[in-house]
Amino acid sequence: EAEVAQSPRYKITEKSQAVAFWCDPISGHATLYWYRQILGQGPELLVQFQDESVVDDSQLPKDRFSAERLKGVDSTLKIQPAELGDSAMYLCASSLNGAGAPETQYFGPGTRLLVL
Amino acid sequence: GQQVMQIPQYQHVQEGEDFTTYCNSSTTLSNIQWYKQRPGGHPVFLIQLVKSGEVKKQKRLTFQFGEAKKNSSLHITATQTTDVGTYFCAGGMDSNYQLIWGAGTKLIIKP
């Protein structure tokens, strides 16, 4: 069964350092989402891509976060510099089309980030 | 802004008891999806409801979508240890085709 891949699974970093997370969606899925999930809360959408284009990044803290999906396949989310409050689970999800009614989203295992 | 409120935050039950979680939206939804997240895991899609008043069942799980398409519920009959986890509702908005997530209800089975 096709799955969303994410790496690394865990990342420990010191504040002010740069971190990067990678996501490979299910093959053929045009829409890719990056979420942040703080322990005990629901996922919060950071950025949504349709192919290589950003559809929504209204909740992305653009002073320190950046995301790209250059070829419309895999994606990278970067934080520079990391802050203590960035400690969370970063989830990547993909869906087939995204153009139309909200679709089923398939999540990767996530990257758990701890900023010291 | 658009919000989906989900209650309760936690529910402790004895194995074999029933469990229910409720979601309420401030605006009309195009659809509602339900996901389950096991401890340490990631959200996994359970079901999607689209029609007003729709009811769907998956074995011991019953999902309902309100007539006004603003609320939804998930009911689990006779809980089992495998049901442990956090259940999230996520409402779809016609305006931007995005999902607005509830905060989740954590199902805890009492030992």
Task: Describe what this molecule looks like in 3D.
With 116 residues, chain A is mainly beta. Chain A has one domain (5-110): Sandwich (Immunoglobulin-like). Chain A contains no helices and 11 strands. Chain A has strands at 5-7, 10-13, 19-24, 31-37, 44-50, 53-56, 65-68, 75-79, 88-95, 106-107, 111-115. In chain A, the strands form 2 sheets. In chain A, strands 2, 4, 5, 6, 9, 10 and 11 form a 7-stranded mixed sheet that branches. A 4-stranded antiparallel sheet of chain A has the order 1-3-8-7, with no helix packed on it. Chain B is an all-beta fold and 111 residues long. Helix content of chain B is 0%, strand content 55%. Chain B is built from no helices and 11 strands. Chain B has strands at residues 4-7, 10-14, 19-25, 31-37, 44-49, 55-58, 61-65, 71-76, 85-92, 99-101, 105-110. In chain B, a hairpin with a 5-residue loop joins strand 7 and strand 8 (71-76). Chain B is globular, with a radius of gyration of 13 Å. The model of chain B has no long low-confidence stretch (mean pLDDT 94). The interface between A and B is medium-sized, with 21 and 23 residues.
- Assign the CATH class of chain A: Mainly Beta
Residues in β-strands, percent of chain A: over 45%
Helical fraction of chain A equals under 10%
Briefly note the structural class of the backbone of chain B. mainly beta
Tell me, what's the shape of chain B? globular
Largest Cβ-defined interface: A-B, 21 and 23 residues
* Largest sheet data of chain A: 7 strands, mixed
The CATH homologous superfamily of chain A is termed Immunoglobulins
CATH names the topology of chain A as Immunoglobulin-like
- From the alpha carbons, calculate the radius of gyration of chain A and give it in angstroms: 13 Å
Order of helices and strands of chain A: EEEEEEEEEEE
Which CATH-level-2 architecture of chain B? Sandwich
Count of helix runs of chain B: 0
Number of helices of chain A: 0
Radius of gyration of chain B: 13 Å
